[in-house]
Write a structure and sequence with these properties.
By secondary structure, the protein is of the alpha/beta class. The protein has 2 domains: 2-63, no CATH class; 72-241, P-loop containing nucleotide triphosphate hydrolases (Rossmann fold, 3-Layer(aba) Sandwich), CATH 3.40.50. It has helices at 3-13, 17-32, 37-64, 85-92, 95-98, 113-126, 136-145, 150-160, 177-190, 207-211, 214-224, 238-241, and strands at residues 102-106, 131-135, 164-170, 195-200, 228-232. A 5-stranded parallel beta sheet has the order 2-3-4-1-5, sandwiched between helices. α3 packs antiparallel against α6 (113-126) and α9 (177-190) packs parallel to α11 (214-224). The N and C termini lie far apart (68 Å). The model has no long low-confidence stretch (mean pLDDT 94). Bound molecules: adenosine-5'-diphosphate and magnesium ion. Magnesium ion (MG) is lined by residues 113-114, 168-169, 199.
Length: 247
Amino acid sequence: MEKLTQIKECAKLLNLTNLKSYVDIFIEKADLSNMTYQDFLLKVLEEELELRSKKARERRFRSAEFTVIKKMEDFDINFQQVITQKQINRLLELEWIDRMYNLIFLGPPGVGKTHISISLGIKAIEAGYNVSFTTMDNLMYCLKTKEISRRSKSKINRIQSSELIIIDELGYLPITREEANLFFQLISSLHEQSSLIITSNKGFEDWTELLGDAALTTAVLDRITYRCELFNMSGKSYRLENRQSLF
Ligand code: ADP
Ligand code: MG
């Protein structure tokens, strides 16, 4: 067998996919330069690692299931008066995930709650964390159907194994007593295991009505707010202020 083919075979068996695809180019480049054996081997290994981490990042990104892509660079800090640039910078350092702190963004529609949450989620993925994004509505659906739907089960498993879980839009749709209980069980199981970002258009005072039970709401809030940073995002809707009109 030709040596190049043999190398490709070995690379395949060792799961060195980058080497397998590009061994010809690697060798060609090495021939043209005055690389040492060390340089050459190091380059092959480094590029393999780089490809692996890129693929893992893409996998984490797909598994997170963001509904839209939002970047912090596109967030106009001056549009709102609640969060400062300094706070954003602190959040972007992601130390709060290691310390298992939760972030809660409360406020009316359009003030940037989802934008900030997704930006932080993307940043966390780039830094190597496992992240799950879900709307409250979808979370309820998955919790209720996890025994009968493989897709729901895998979403819940994914949530359980994430270091950061973003639960968007708590409070937009009414939830039943059974759903509130399932939500409490999930929150309990995640407590001190991972970080949560929760966004809601309802203040804590309205959560009892939302979850339908004072004791349950206290228990949920107790866990969520134990180690948490709360942002009350009052202010104008960015959507309304920046309405894109056709004419
Ligand atoms: P919320 O989740 O609070 O309802 P969103 O985060 O969905 O609001 O924001 C609504 C729209 O306005 C989105 O397209 C978002 O990117 C944009 N937006 C909101 N606040 C800002 C901001 N401060 N700078 C730039 N875009 C913003
Ligand atoms: Mg939103």
